[in-house]
């Protein structure tokens, strides 16, 4: 299992800029809760899921099996 940044630097820059503006909360979501703080619960659960491979909701990270 490996988690890496998206290799598309433009996407990474845009999401990181969004994270800066929200104070670390997921820029793709409206709710500001502990579950939407990056890395959000959704992605943490996807990391734990041995069958999941793919990007997080914002395309910042990629998890490979
Ligand atoms: S979807 Fe990605 S960028 Fe957004 S909070 Fe989750 S891990 Fe962070």
Description:
- The protein has one domain.
- Helices cover 34% and strands 15% of the residues.
- The chain contains 2 helices and 3 strands; from the N terminus they run E-H-H-E-E.
- Strands 1-3-2 form a 3-stranded antiparallel beta sheet, with no helix packed on it.
- The protein is flat and about 30 Å long.
- The model has no long low-confidence stretch (mean pLDDT 97).
- It binds iron/sulfur cluster.
- Residues 15, 26, 28, 38-40, 43, 56-58, 60-61 line the site of iron/sulfur cluster (SF4).
- By DSSP, the count of extended strands is 3
**N-to-C terminal Cα separation, in Å?**
4 Å
Tell me which oligomeric state these chains represent.
single chain
What can be said about the biggest beta sheet?
3 strands, antiparallel
What is the topology, as strand order, of the major beta sheet?
1-3-2
Rg over C-alpha atoms, rounded to the nearest angstrom? 12 Å
Shape: flat
Strand content: 15-25%
What are its keywords?
65 residues; alpha+beta; three-stranded antiparallel sheet; 3 strands; 15% strand; binds iron/sulfur cluster
């Amino acid at each position: 299992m490996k988690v890496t940044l998206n290799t598309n630097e433009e996407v990474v820059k845009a999401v990181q800029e969004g994270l800066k503006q929200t104070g670390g909360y997921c820029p793709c979501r409206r709710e500001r809760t502990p579950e939407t703080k990056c890395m959000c619960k959704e992605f943490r659960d996807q990391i734990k899921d041995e069958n999941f491979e793919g990007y997080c909701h914002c395309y910042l990270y990629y998890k490979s099996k």
